[in-house]
Amino acid sequence: MRWTRRLRLCVAGAVTASALFAVPVAQAAQAAQAAQAAQAAQAAQAAQPSDAQLTDLVNPFIGTENEGNTYPGAAVPFGMVQFSPDTGHNTGYDYSQNHIRGFSLIHLSGVGCGLGGDLPVLPTTGDVTETDYAKYAAEFSHDNEEASPGYYKVGLGSGIDAEVTATERTGVQRYTFPATDKANVLLNAGQSLHKKVSTQVEILDNRTVRTAINGSGFCQDTLPYTVYTITRFDRPFTAYGTWDGDTVTAGSKTGRDGAYLRFDTAKDRTVEATTALSYVDARGAAVNLRAEGGRSFDDVRSAANRAWEDRLDDVRAQGGSDSLRRTFYSSLYRSFLAPNIGSDADGRYTGWDQKVHRAKGFTYYQNWSLWDTYRTQSQLLTLLAPREARDMAISVIKIDEEAGWLPKWGYGTVETNIMTGDPVTPFLTNAYQQGLLGGYEEQAYRALKKNADGVPPANSPAVGREANKEYLANGFAPYIKGRPHVKPGDSDYDHGASATLEYALSDAMLAQMARDLGHRVDAERYAARSQSYRNVFDASTGFFRARDASGAFAGPADPAQSEGFHEGTAWQYQWLVPQDLPGMIDLIGGAHTANERLDSFFAYEQLLKDPAKTAREVWVNGPYDYYNADKYNPQNEPDLIAPYTYLSTGQPWKTTDVVHAALTLFTDAPTGMTGNDDLGTMSAWNVLSSIGIFPVQPGYDTWGLSTPVFERVDLTLDRRYYPRGALTVTAPGTSEDDRYIQSARTDGTAYDRTYLTTDALRSLRSLAFTVGPRPSEWGTSAQAAPPALR
Are 145 and 139 in contact (CB under 8 A)? Predict the structure, then answer.
């Protein structure tokens, strides 16, 4: 256990999230339930350690059904390789399907479009007569399937047992065949989860196969990237061949689309192989194989389990139902699956200029779902994995250095331009606010300033703030319906209203960084621009509304039918002003009006009567049903912060009610993910909201407070970034009957604010909540709310 390295978190006395609602709201303040010392002693007793492995609490099948789009296969934390079965779903694995097309090397947890799935490998027996993996796919049953962190196993209908595990840069496979002289392993280079551009297969010797795979895709076609692999078997194959299209050539050593390797398993029925991956070149794959290969399957599996146990051991949970603990730890597990290592074992990586570079003093990472992760997952990593989070931030800075512009949604070595707004700014300003950019502050600021004040040139694949010219001139990004896309991906002009709100949010965060670094003129300019959200407010409707190029309001006046918002409506985007909630609240008519609108938005009266039913039947209408709604959508990113708006309207107890209702959507089942996980975004929301500390101003250092679902949370943070090295959050007695904060204390001193700053987290040793059956006066004063950033 890395006690001096990172945070150890112990969660004790948990209650099921679905059981946190039974008491009606009352307005009178309640007395403390017990003395603080007695409560602390009670929580400490509940937090006695357990000898059970925390990896046993992780269920990798959560989210594999109903478009959660997670994967059950093998990976290590932030690994380059995610070795997982593909069943025919466009993102890889779907629990409702019963055929496996192959075990491929690359997957991203919870993405909404097909990508990855490179080099699907499948064991078969008999002659090789099919080259389409949809036709030679093997039937399987969940009764013969198991998964845990770093390991996956399935018994195929063909009588073959398949197992996979992983290191950072390799996937290791073990197949147990029936007794036969025609045991095959198929390496399909020509098919994956996205469009292939070209492939090459070479059989190097009687144990080794090499491939080069050019791929493109992800929601829309993007620039191609190349993945290099080398696969080394633990014993010689007895025969081999390759295929081009549907033509199989026995004895051929080169091919375009795939290769088969044959083994005699009449006596020795087991075949093992290690496949190394590189985004640089064939030499890089060989370097990774030498660095991480050469070990038995069982040794690799044990090492992967230890890596996960070591990571999860920083968040120890005691008490509560088995289901809740599995849900919580499974979310924590998924939060550490991305971003992914992009550099080889020798430090080389392919930059976004498509040239080879060498990472010096840091590990290079890739895969940036920034529109999603900037709101939750990046903040969780700054707490629990600050060293890796620093390297991730440096990697994003390197993208600007090498390719000329910061990313929006980066996959592998290319920009996809998926989603809108300016998510890279709060991502990097968050890293700055958490103290992770030491030595890179000014370089990061220069890149962010260029991004905030300009538009990428025509020869850059990036779109950046695509509507920035109009935004800077007129104070809003126009909604231009049907405008042709100049570059692949999404366009801010299709979503002018929400793009305006996101630009303004980013400007606010950049203003704070500029002020800290002494760039005062810039700070004032960005702070003024952060008020641009006002320019898309329609006083006649009381909601934000898109404007066309002439400045006229566009689309239906009904906020539930609004246009120009990306994956949402005006109802859902009205709360996306975390930089200035007091100003937004005044704009719509004050706190009373805001609370009425929030209550309607969350169906609050229904929620109090039946939170789980309200969450499933009122809030949620399908995994991709983003539009034509006037209710909270807990499945998608625009609303992730919305429950915490009550902290700014004088009714903080309602934040607890809404958050805990939303937590009921996370269950220990294949359907237990709410919406796409989006590289750990929803999982991180679950983890942070369960602990009771949530980033309410993404890109800054403000953490909103709500009632934890656990009685005790012990954090031991990385001492390089959190010198005190310890923070304990307690809420003794939190339950279905006692869920409302009555008082709070920081290091034994009364605390009446509904938020903490990162500096406070670094200086504190304890945050203690007293809870009771009814709302209290705690956190209701105007001074208690998170302040505006101006």
Answer: no
